[in-house]
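queue> pop job 88
queue> type: inverse folding (structure -> sequence)
queue> payload:
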C-alpha cells in the first residue's frame, strides 16, 4: 500500500511539472526558467535573467 501511495505522489509531481511546461510553452515563453521569458528571443544567453552569472 505504501508503494502505491509513493507512486501516486510521484505521478502527481511529474504530471504537475509537465503541465507547467506545457502551459508555459503554449503561452509563448521560450526560456521557461528565465524571468524575462515572455520577452525572450529564445537564445537564453541573451536574456537579462538567463545570462547573468550566478
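queue> result:
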Amino acid at each position: 500500500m505504501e508503494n502505491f501511495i509513493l507512486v501516486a505522489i510521484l505521478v502527481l509531481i511529474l504530471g504537475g511539472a509537465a503541465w507547467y511546461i506545457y502551459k508555459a510553452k503554449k503561452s509563448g515563453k521560450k526560456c521557461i526558467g528565465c524571468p524575462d521569458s515572455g520577452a525572450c528571443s529564445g537564445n537564453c544567453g541573451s536574456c537579462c535573467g538567463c545570462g547573468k552569472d550566478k
